[in-house]
Amino acid sequence: MRARTITNLYLVAALTATIAVAQPGNLAPNGQFDDPQGIGGWSVANTSISSLAFEADVDADDCPASGAAFGSSDPSIDGGTAEYRVCVTGLDDATTYRITGRFRFDSDLVVGRANVSVNFYATTNCSASDLGGQFAGYARTDVAGWQRVTSVPSPTPAGTQSAWLRVLLTQTHGAQPEIEVLFDDIRLERAAAIFGDGAEGGGTCRWN
């Protein structure tokens, strides 16, 4: 495990106790992990094999006062996939959305991948059976630097009111050491948005 200075929040209760705020243009609460929100609002679905922490000194766009999430997983315990998620509310049906995310693996010694997915619900709190969803492809451990994954925009199913936005971390080759990933700029946005870097909300540090 690489050395880092982070604030660890292993308990789901601690993660969800902080009120998360969505950035302009991004409907995902705290999808850019801006300090001091840290990883507030995000939860760990399977704490038996994985943990989630905030890394304040790393950001996908080197933006000041912003950090990234740090996920680690040891699926050798039960062969599972780590899942980090946040509930997005106030969605509209028959509206075209897309999801994106950015990932960085600092080691390729453990073979694995990460991705973003979303599932839509007819309830206001991400409960009951899902209506369908989107998948944004994979970032892989054998690719250096920050990787961006993006879904094909598609309309939400009829009746959509909320969605679970998920980051999944998978170790793909048997019993290996735990796998670690940094992720940032996790977005659920209307496909009509022109920019995916905060420009429409007045932010410029993410311009390329």
What does this 3D model show about the protein?
- This protein is mainly beta and 208 residues long.
- It has one domain: Jelly Rolls, CATH 2.60.120.260.
- The protein is 3% helix and 39% strand.
- It has 1 helix and 12 strands, in the order E-H-E-E-E-E-E-E-E-E-E-E-E.
- The protein has one helix spanning 12-17; strands spanning 6-8, 43-44, 50-55, 68-73, 82-89, 96-104, 112-121, 132-140, 147-150, 154-155, 162-171, 179-190.
- The strands form 2 sheets. Strands 1, 3, 4, 6, 9, 10 and 12 form a 7-stranded antiparallel sheet that branches.
- Residues 1-19 and 199-203 have low confidence and may be disordered.
The biggest beta sheet, please?
A: 7 strands, antiparallel
Helix content: under 10%
Order of helices and strands: EHEEEEEEEEEEE
Q: Quote the beta fraction.
A: 35-45%
According to DSSP, the number of beta strands is 12
**Looking at the structure, what is the overall shape?**
globular
CATH topology call: Jelly Rolls
CATH-defined architecture: Sandwich
Per CATH, the class reads Mainly Beta
Work out the count of structural domains.
Answer: 1
Mean pLDDT: 83
- Uncertain residue ranges: 1-19, 199-203
* Structural class by secondary-structure content: mainly beta
Note the total helix count.
Answer: 1
